[in-house]
Amino acid sequence: MSSSLSTTPRQAQAQPIRAALGSFLGTLIEWFDFYIYATASALIFSHVFFPGSSQLVGTLSSFATLAVGFLARPLGGIIFGHLGDRFGRKYSLILTLFLMGASTVGIGLLPSYAQVGVMAPVLLVLLRVLQGIAVGGEWGGAVLLASEHAPERRKSFYASFAQLGSPAGLILSLLVFRYISSLPEADMLSWGWRLPFVGSVLLLLLAFVIRRGVNESPEFEAQRAKIAERSEQQSPVKVVLRDSWPLILLVMGACTIGISSAYFTNTFMIAYATQFMGINSQVILECLSVVAIVQLINQPIAAWLADKVGAGRFLLLTSGISILVPYLMFNLVGTGSSLMIILGISLTKIFSSAFYAVIAGYIVNIFPLHQRYSGISLAYQGCGALIGGTTPMLGTLIAGRFGGQWWPLAVFYSLLALTSFVCVALLVLRQSRRARA
């Protein structure tokens, strides 16, 4: 008997909340692990794993290992999308949780380049690939578990809890690195940076306990027999790639600003502010901590509004405004004032994080139930591989090419937002035509 059939009415009423909480905690861990890696790439890894090179080359090398994880994310989407579409969302999510925990702790235990030479960055890349596979499988399942448990008129709101893991993970990672960056440099580079990687195992245990109490998706359970029969005939991944590849490309484009903005402001801006603008790393980390709190508050409000006005219309508004805001952001950050840095980045994040909160629930219904996990995972993680992981590298290259001038970077950000605007407009048009048909 399935867990959903043995659930009491009171427990069944609590399931949407538990599913949202379980999705939030899971993605909190995934993004905490990802952000501590991203922050360490900007501040630590060039010294520990790529010594002897110039600061620019060392930073680019560190960001390259960050990008490798993004390239592995579509593979995670394929593996766990197949498992989630065939055997259930909950089963797949438990596996991704432990894979991420094992790879993250492994990074924290790695020897440095000074200890084992080139083997150190090689092992770093291998573990980074495992991290990427785990995140590639986690996101789609977390969104579906929350969305498919949610009441019909509150899909965007409940699905947004999976997206809350990003700002919450950022806040936690920045708090940890605020302590680490206060250590003497020798201690920070030898053992201090390892603490958040090893300590993430505690978060893993908490999330596992919460997720054990969440039932399988009721929508999946209702169609389990049909889904199993269809999956035995042909893999869900093969079907979605064969029949829906143009739609996957369109959803990839739609997700662009939601994914890339996080790594533009939260990763690249650390390196840009410290290396090209001379802002102290402690100052920029404190400013980003405040911005992350703004994002954490903003996202559920944005998702609630999207349920009221329509998700498609809301996404067009926020992506359209995102085309314009980076010009103001760079001028405010350029003052060097902590208050102006917070204000500038917050203005950008208010709109990009609102888009990020809503896009997850919006794309769920674009794919049929038996292909959802595979479809949204391939699209979202494919976008992450092409855009998210390369954004800090491209930003660094642009800044180096133009001597740290801000306007080429603002244009770069505007192009990312424009891509999302155009693709969302096409998706809204497609959904409108389907509704009239």
Instruction: State the low-pLDDT regions, or none.
Output: 1-5
**Biggest sheet, in brief?**
none
The number of domains: 1
CATH architecture: Up-down Bundle
Strand content: under 5%
CATH class: Mainly Alpha
**CATH topology annotation:** Growth Hormone, Chain: A
Radius of gyration: 21 Å
Query: How far apart, in Å, are the first and last alpha carbons?
Result: 39 Å
Superfamily (CATH H level) name: MFS general substrate transporter like domains
Please trace the helix and strand order, writing H or E for each element: HHHHHHHHHHHHHHHHHHHHHH
Average predicted local confidence, pLDDT: 83
What does it look like?
- The protein starts with 8 loop residues before the first helix and ends with a helix.
- The protein is built from 22 helices and no strands.
- The radius of gyration is 21 Å and the shape is globular.
- The chain has one domain (9-436): Growth Hormone, Chain: A.
- It has 437 residues and is mostly helical.
- Helix 16 packs parallel to helix 19.
Summarize the structure.
Helices cover 83% and strands 0% of the residues. With 437 residues, the chain is mostly helical.
